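Might I ask for a little of your time on a matter of protein folding? Here, with my thanks, is the record as I have it:
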Amino acid sequence: MIKFLLRTLVFLLSAAVGIAVTSWIFDGFDLDGFDVVWSEPLGFILAVVIFAAVQAIISPFILRVANRNAPALVGATGLISTIVALLVATLVTDGLVVDTVLGWILGSVVVWLVTMLATLLLPMLLIKEGVEKAREND
């Protein structure tokens, strides 16, 4: 049960990092089309939860369909599920706005890359922090 909760936490944190970093990159390069509505923090949180849930639900389905019908697309499963999850999150919430072709293409790729890296690195950081706290308590 604890393992499931930790995986869920990492998945949600990586989704939040992916969406936030993408928004900051777009702002930093004066690119339009991908924006987090920071004035509504609950909207951002809801967008992250919906994004993560949709991605978790549809990724296995997309992988199965790709394996069966288009094996060449198996490598793009994560990117496809990211695009679909972003679409649902933007339609359902006001916390995330993607409204240009550049936002959809570049934004999806950046969210996918940053989320992937965060999913790899966050567990290591959490484990390191847990080990350091355990050493302090000894």
DSSP finds four helices and two strands in the chain. The longest helix spans residues 101-137. The mean pLDDT is 92.
